[in-house]
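Note to self: keep these together.
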Amino acid sequence: MSKQVIHFLYLITLMVLVVSACAPKSPSPATEAPTTDEPAEASLTDAPETAEPPPLVTVTATEANPPSAPTLVTFDLSAPPMEVGSTFTFIDGSVLVAVPEGEFIMGHGGDDNPEHKVFISDFWIYRTEVSNRTFALCVALGQCDSPDPDLNPYFDSARNPAFRDPSHANDPVVGVTWEQANAYCNMVKGRLPTEAEWEKTARGPDGNIYPWGNAAPGCTLANIGRCNPGVVEVNQFAEGRSYYEALNLTGNVFEWVADWYDPSYYSISPTEDPSGPESGFFRAVRSGGFREDYYLAESARRFRFKPVDERDDLGFRCVVEPENLLGFAPWCSMVAYVGANQGGGAPGDVSIPSPVCDNVSGSSAGYCNTNTNPKSPAASLNFSPDPLPASSVFSVPGGCALDLISADPNDYYCTSGGTATVQGFCAVPPAPVPPGCPAGYTQNGNMCEWTGGGTDATACLPGVTYDPLTQCCSSTDGIGDSFALCPANAPYYAGGACVPWPSSDWGPLVTINVILGSCRDGGGGGNACQPPVGGCSDPKSSWDQDQCCCYNPFIGSCTK
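Structure:
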């Protein structure tokens, strides 16, 4: 039995002896009190050394009045089963998913990626990438350096909700080196996954091509192929979850793994728990960023970056060994919110829903209007879907007007260039009512004031305090301090900060550049449309007779 549990039982026993000594003597023997039907939240004490499942420990906590009617509280000291579908809410609020031992098909062809079978032992892995808010805890505790502010401008909002845009606190943390990622995993008694562990989590035991199976990628399954202009929150794309119910193992961000990269390693790697080469110049990287093409979405693909590299599409997730699962006590139940879909349920069970926004976009193409005399440079502008939702908002350059010839009500005819924009309306769910103050605190107006007892910080992260009576870690700056309840626009408290509730009624601003085509004076016959002498000067452009210009398909515009 762990020292924490012994210490806890010792405290409770002393309380019972003191109350019993002060209570009046009873001539008849005390009757046994019934146990409760509902177990309390699992404590995260050290795992017992015995191989047998640990027993349930029943602890008697006597009532002040009357002392002869105690209430029994049951603490389950066991870990969840190591089986597919098991989840566990870890010390930093992240949800772990179980990956049981067994063989799987690794590799999918190529010089550095031959297909082979590998046996992997049991492990737990983060269901999502580590978020800005979660990484902020490591920085606040002095265990991690902050990400590069140019590559992750939203990180400070995770530490201070009043700074910049706090709605990005649940985005994956990016702009971190391999060492920064490794430092975070070490802080929580975890580590970065090996390439083999990462690939097994993504592909399942049968070696699926993609996390969701073998169906082709799409924008409902992963944030890849520029489906979104940047990263999205770590709990998105539940449809694309893996066999083990991990999210975003394709797209959103590349992910650091533990291994050094060697293109020939698979030819000499062990068949059981390979950990990668002993040294190297590059670190291996898996998954793929939001900009990557669909063909790069295959889960077996290997990438490499220098350990000091930082990118705006490079993050990580951690692995926890089964023996370290119970190394921490849980966070105390504060106005406890750790992010949507982070409560330990199935990936589809979104406890804190996100806004639902209209999906709108636009496009433009330049051309030479041959219906005018003389011919004039022009451009078309179109918004989609057709028609636009009535709640959408948009703007067009001053030289654009509805195209009366077109049957599409979203078509505009433009005689001058500029920038058009469109935004979809978002339905924002109402924020839940904060539940108030945690155990050991009492509410006084807008403040939670400490009314509890002593602490023992040994079961928590550095700089975080442990309450042996409630067996949990406080996410405040220390037990004994008062703190304010969170405001209505950020009603939940986690990791030392109030969590913002989605409040924007509008989706991302979509910008469309309106660039006119060109009309070239061919000479002799007025405005005859003629190609340039010698052809188009830009090797990527070709002559477009309809637009009367050298059209570059890579930038979607014309050059003279």
